[in-house]
Amino acid sequence: MKKFMSILAVALMVMAMAGMALAGEVVIKGSTTVLPIAQAAAEKFMEANPDIKLTVSGGGSGNGIKAIIDGTTDIADASRFIKDSEVKAAFEKGVYPVPFAVAMDALLPVVHPSNPVSELSLEQLRKIYMGEIKNWNEVGGPSMGIAVVGRDTSSGTYETWEEKVMNKERVTERALIVASNGAMVQTVAQNKLAIGYIGLGYLNDSLKALKAEGVMGSNETALNGEYLISRYLFMFTDGWPEGDTGKFINFVMSQAGQEIVAETGYVPMH
After folding, report:
1. pLDDT of 172-231, one tens digit each?
2. Is residue 141 within 8 Å of 115, Cβ to Cβ?
3. Based on the structure, what is the number of domains in the chain?
4. β-bridge pairing 97-111 and 230-238
5. Is residue 54 located within the same domain as residue 168?
6. Alpha carbon distances (Å) from 248 to 66, 76, 105, 251, 253
């Protein structure tokens, strides 16, 4: 009888552990640009798959990729492609990052709605962020100082801006640095002197988007290449995704997932 009870206890423990295994968990970290897509997709995915829990957080593209290298996330969101140095660091740890382009984005220069300026050239944007243009009257606006708002260096949004606008020139030390798209929205919306830049999905009525080189960033102009400050948005996995992680990636890439991309304000891949 004692032996039977021991066997029964072990059997119950195995069953309990099996039950726990059925309740999968997928961790997603990284870009605050991709964050609205990941959050909205996760909600819909968990509605259809209540046995799978998805945990979604931001922190920046660099931090997301670092997390996939360190093994602390299943999916890394990134608003830029992985760097050669990151690939090298990943390989050294036996990690093989696989990219999935889940959306396109137009990176928009934004100002306070009261600002009469409606467009800037890439050269003007670059000189504003370098600190060479310091007053709005130098670009057709009122005689007011320009409050430059930028992103931290771990941000994929910062790196896209650095590549496509700054041409690797340094941002002025006077710039206020914020940690996320959400913080950028709040900062620029509350300052009539400010200029910043955000992903397309974060644009709302509290901000005014500016044309760049005479073209307004939109789904259409990002897709056809007319808008010059556009980019792909990625989700990275360690190796080809399987199990619950693969199931979620497949959902994001599906027609239903791409409809969510469009609903969040970004450009679907199909």
Report:
1. 999 999 999 999 999 999 999 999 999 999 999 999 999 999 999 999 999 999 999 999
2. yes
3. 2
4. antiparallel
5. no
6. 21, 13, 21, 5, 9
